[in-house]
Amino acid sequence: MTDAPIRVLIADDHFVVRRGIGALLASLDAVEVVAEAATGAETVRQAQLTRPDVIIMDIQMPDLDGIEATRRLSVLVPDAAVLVLTMFEDDASVLSAMRAGARGYLLKGAQQQDLLAAIRSVAAGQMVIGPGVAGRLVGYLGTAQPPDPFPDLTPRERAILDRLAQGQSNGAIAAELGVAPKTVGNHVSAIFAKLRVASRAEAIVRAREKGLGDQGTRS
Questions:
Q1: Lower CB count within 10 Å: N or C terminus of the chain?
Q2: Which residue has the higher pLDDT, 147 or 17?
Q3: Residue 98 in contact with residue 70, Cβ under 8 Å?
Q4: What would the pLDDT profile of 40-77 be if each residue is shown by its tens digit?
Q5: Is the per-residue pLDDT at 144 higher than 50?
Q6: 151/195 Cα distance (integer angstroms)
Q7: Which range scores top for mean pLDDT: 32-36, 98-102, 195-199?
């Protein structure tokens, strides 16, 4: 009797990337792709419907980014292991993903055997950090770091809060980040909720107290 295949949900906002990963996994008997999703909110819905073993998660997606989607999935679908597969290799993204509940972090471009090994590992409850980020993460964790003043913020929310502290409008932030003003507005609302503030002025004061708003802090 053969082992049942690992059921996988692929979450990425780019159609070509989703299909590419799907084609890569379709050739493997050990894996079954049960669903795809193009947004963070759709990922959460599909995970609740299909109950996959592993969710391959991109970080930057519409509606909810991958980190916030991971945070929600850790509560709503705790048995599903999130494996982040992304172009982002900065320390903040890696740490935010792990704090949100991800069990693995790989960079896009990983070889088929590395991706399959990571899927098997996270499905078995193990943690996986790809070689492209492992060394830097170990060095980061081995260095004394000041406590994160805003641990609940995603990297994108932190970038927007930094720009708010610089005095930028939503429209200016949207133009700089290459997103719609409505998207920035949604992020600002999420920032207010997480910081427990009621106004832009309060958020700016909190951010500047913690050192944000300096031109050198941009991300």
A1: N
A2: 17
A3: no
A4: 999 999 999 999 999 999 988 888 889 999 999 998 99
A5: no
A6: 10
A7: 32-36
Identify the helix (H) or strand (E) that includes residue 117: helix 112-123
- Structure tokens belonging to residue 170: 């939503």
Whole-angstrom Cα distance, residue 19 to residue 16? 5
Sign, CA dihedral 197-67-170-166, equals positive
In sequence order, the 6+-apart residues with CB closer than 8 A to the CB of 176 are 163, 168
Instruction: Please tell me what DSSP assigns to residue 164.
Output: H
Paired tokens of 149: 């003043």
pTM of the model: 0.63
Nearest to 36 by CA among 28, 52, 94: 52
Instruction: Tell me how far CA of residue 87 lies from CA of 60, 96, 106, 158, 171, in angstroms.
Output: 9, 15, 9, 18, 26
Give first-to-last CA distance, the chain, whole Å. 51
Q: Cα-Cα-Cα-Cα dihedral of 142, 107, 58, 90, to 10°? A: 40
Residue 136: CB atoms within 10 A of its CB come to: 14
pLDDT tens sequence across 2-18? 578 999 999 999 999 99
Under 8 Å between Cβ of 188 and 179: no
